[in-house]
Amino acid sequence: MKYREKLIQLIKADDKEALFGWIQSHDGLDQTAILREFKIVLTELAEKEGYGLGIYGDTFDDFDEKIDKFEDAILDVKFTKAQLKMIEEDKEVVEKRINEGIEANRAYIIDCIVNNRPNAAEMRQLADDLISFEKKTNTYQYENWEPIFLL
């Protein structure tokens, strides 16, 4: 009953706007706890002190179900954000591995050409194809291939 005193104060003040403004100022999951407590407190006050539920209209028709749905939506958003963060982290790892692979392959191709390995002609053709592809995808950088141009 963490929010009980504040709820009683706001209910007795009969200021619906202040009450719901205060509730909205809290984190989503805290809001669900406050709303559940609100129902209990308001019902108790109505029974003990004769406060009417009138200013809250039909708020309590299927109230628990609405709070459960609200809580589920909040949890869904939190879960989705956590998944997105994991995906972004995974994406960074994959991009790093891809870039490392590209650099290693480029180094191998350049080594074969520069050192005139038996497959140098094939590697020269592959280098030309890769350079062409890089130019089409705007990823070409002269310095990456510079050693084969200095021959």
Features:
0% strand; 151 residues; single chain; 2 domains; rod-shaped; mainly alpha; 6 helices
**Major sheet size, sense and barrel closure:** none
- How many structural domains does the protein architecture include? 2
Q: Cα-atom Rg, whole angstroms?
A: 33 Å
**Can you tell me the residue ranges where pLDDT is under 50 for at least 5 consecutive residues?**
none
- The geometry reads as rod-shaped
Give the overall average pLDDT: 91
Number of strands: 0
Q: In what range is the share of β-strand residues?
A: under 5%
Oligomer description: single chain
Helix content: over 70%
Please count the helical segments.
Answer: 6
User: SSE order, as H and E?
Assistant: HHHHHH
Gap between N and C termini = 80 Å
Backbone structural class: mainly alpha
Question: How would you characterize the overall build of this protein?
Answer:
There is one protein chain. 9% of the residues are buried. The longest helix has 52 residues, at 63-114. The N and C termini lie far apart (80 Å). This protein has two domains: 1-61, no CATH class; 87-151. The chain is mainly alpha-helical. The model has no long low-confidence stretch (mean pLDDT 91). It contains six helices and no strands. It has helices at residues 4-12, 16-24, 28-49, 63-114, 120-136, 142-149. Helix 4 (63-114) packs across helix 5 (120-136).
Summarize the structure.
The chain has 151 residues and is an all-alpha fold. It is 77% helix and 0% strand. The protein has helices at residues 4-12, 16-24, 28-49, 63-114, 120-136, 142-149.
How is the topology of this model organized?
Layout: H1 4-12, H2 16-24, H3 28-49, H4 63-114, H5 120-136, H6 142-149
Helix pairs in contact: 1-3, 3-4, 4-5, 4-6
